[in-house]
């Protein structure tokens, strides 16, 4: 009797680095908390007050500051499964630049909005942190490239990837209005950046920012969309 075996995707280079850094920060943060020292989130997490105080590194460090074990495990698995597939399709260079553009873009917009509208309030000083924003950006990209793929809400309810992401958007909007203002709106920014990058991937500026692979014909770097006969996927290559 044949059995269907589950096979996890290979953990790709960029995701391996991301998860290694996050795991190291998670362990260090747990040790610091256990001995009653300072909170690592206040150092690595991104807040408007921190950024405009000169802590520029927070623009790239905030995703690595995970504090909850289950959030760390779930986010790590999602990056492993979804992120690794996208990195294989796009290549490590484009995948890395996609993530960097999203992370830095979200950080800048979040901080400037806080400076303009929430200066002197808890929102301006509240740090955002963790891999959830990256994961939501990856899910939006995945749903744009593979809208008819099946994903499972809460590991139980199967649905199309596009429907799954619309539900996530609705949840984040609800949370942003009635609960965790800073975190949820940062997540929505990440999803928005991901959507815009995918939609404008063929524009000259975006192609230059993402830096495509070398062309064998003329030696120039370029980005182009490959369309399969199927409906979808379409992806960077």
Task: Summarize the entry for a quick read.
This protein has 237 residues and is mainly alpha-helical. The chain has helices spanning 13-34, 40-44, 48-51, 58-61, 69-90, 92-117, 122-125, 132-145, 161-178, 181-199, 204-210; strands spanning 150-153, 157-160, 225-227, 234-236. It has a single domain (13-236), classed as Rhomboid-like fold.
Report on the architecture of this protein:
With 237 residues, the chain is mainly alpha-helical. It has a single domain (13-236), classed as Rhomboid-like (Rhomboid-like fold). Helices cover 61% and strands 6% of the residues. The chain is built from eleven helices and four strands, in the order ααααααααββαααββ. The chain has helices spanning 13-34, 40-44, 48-51, 58-61, 69-90, 92-117, 122-125, 132-145, 161-178, 181-199, 204-210, and strands at residues 150-153, 157-160, 225-227, 234-236. The strands form two sheets. The chain has a two-stranded antiparallel sheet. Strands 3-4 form a two-stranded antiparallel sheet. A hairpin with a 6-residue loop joins strand 3 (225-227) and strand 4 (234-236). Helix 1 (13-34) packs antiparallel against helix 5 (69-90), helix 5 (69-90) crosses helix 6 and helix 5 (69-90) runs parallel beside helix 8 (132-145).
């Amino acid at each position: 009797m044949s059995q269907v075996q589950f096979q996890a995707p290979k953990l790709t280079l960029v995701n391996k680095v991301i998860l290694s850094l996050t795991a190291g920060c998670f362990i260090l943060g747990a040790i610091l908390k256990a001995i009653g020292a300072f909170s690592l989130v206040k150092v690595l997490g991104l807040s408007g007050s921190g950024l405009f105080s000169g802590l520029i590194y927070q623009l790239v460090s905030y995703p690595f500051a995970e504090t909850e074990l289950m959030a760390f495990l779930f986010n790590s698995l999602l990056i492993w499964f979804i992120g690794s597939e996208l990195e294989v399709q796009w290549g490590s260079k484009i995948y890395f630049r996609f993530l960097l553009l999203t992370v830095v873009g979200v950080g800048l917009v979040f901080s400037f909005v806080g400076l303009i509208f929430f200066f002197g309030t808890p929102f301006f000083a509240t740090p955002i942190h963790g891999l959830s924003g990256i994961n939501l950006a990856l899910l939006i990209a995945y749903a744009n490239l593979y809208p008819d793929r099946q994903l499972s809400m809460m590991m139980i309810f199967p649905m199309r990837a596009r429907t799954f992401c619309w539900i996530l958007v609705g949840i984040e909007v609800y949370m942003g209005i009635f609960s965790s203002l800073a975190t949820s709106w940062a997540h929505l920014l990440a999803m928005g950046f991901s959507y815009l990058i995918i939609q404008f991937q063929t524009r000259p500026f975006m192609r230059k920012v993402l830096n495509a692979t070398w062309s064998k014909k003329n030696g120039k770097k370029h980005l182009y969309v490959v369309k399969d006969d199927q409906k979808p996927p379409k992806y960077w290559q």
